[in-house]
Amino acid sequence: MSAITRGLLLLCAAVAASAFELRDGDVVFHLFTRANPQVSQPLLPSVASIMTSSFSVTRRTIVTIHSDGEGVSGNFNAFVVQAHLSAEDVNVIAVDWSPGSTMYTHGLGNAPQAGLIIAQFINILINTFGYTASQIRIVGVGLGGHVAGIAARNVNGEIPHIVALDPSLHGWTHHPEILNEDDATVVEVLHTTAGLKGYDYPLGDLDFYSNGGQAQSGCGTDVSCSHIYSYVFYAESITAEVVGGRKFVGTACQNSEEAMNLQCTGPRDSIFGGSATKTDDFGVYMFLTNFVSPFARD
């Protein structure tokens, strides 16, 4: 990417940050459980609202964060919420920050504040209900991948696992709040539109580049299609555990350039996604997929 292009993206970020601001009520939390898997239960960031909900402190919690132009009922949550509920009895808290992310520049400017609001909500669970950060996974797509990192680093305790699905590129190259490997015990990243819509260089402890990370099988030059596959692959990695399906097994790479050129020759010793919390996985990996579902080759 040229210096001029990066400069324009930074200018775009500065304009976005100064032009928009989240207001009270612009970030809404929706609870899904196996008892109410289709109709969400709104949660307010208050003790009373949480106490009267079906949230359970004995269950693990998955927090999902969408990107720009979506909401709680978008495709991302349609795939990810149901996948997690099919595999495990968990609380799924889907964050809806759509009023602050209708446009990309809008969401870019609001991402830091959205992350702080999410962290404040999680801290209510921890400080008031005795919930522990170790029971939480945060899953974000696009802008939501960076918001996940911002939220995690402001939680009272260490989040064990972040999954960032094709985290956004534009405006983040020199952004002070960019997702990084210190945001959780393990930060796992999947790149599906690297250098186009999604970030190209590794951001986490564990970075996977599916089909080279830039364009996904069957999408051609449709970048939006390749971006969508990030959460399609993630959802399959969860549901495959229920039906005994194949896994997305990664081949180790020396660096992201090798991964994007499909030149990796290292051991096949890391698996993308899945419901288990990862503890010590690290490195850069690539994996290939089938053209149609099921996409994992094993």
UniProtKB/TrEMBL annotation:
Q: Does the keyword DNA-binding apply?
A: no
**One Gene Ontology term of the molecular function aspect:** serine hydrolase activity
One biological process term from GO is:
lipid catabolic process
InterPro entries xref list: AB_hydrolase_fold (IPR029058), Lipase (IPR013818), TAG_lipase (IPR000734)
Compartments where found: Secreted
- What are the record keywords, sorted? Secreted, Signal
Task: Identify the residues that the record assigns to the Lipase domain, covering every copy.
Answer: 12-268
Do you know which Pfam families this protein is assigned to? Lipase
Family, as annotated: Belongs to the AB hydrolase superfamily. Lipase family.
Q: What is this protein called?
A: Pancreatic triacylglycerol lipase-like
Gene assigned in the entry: LOC106124890
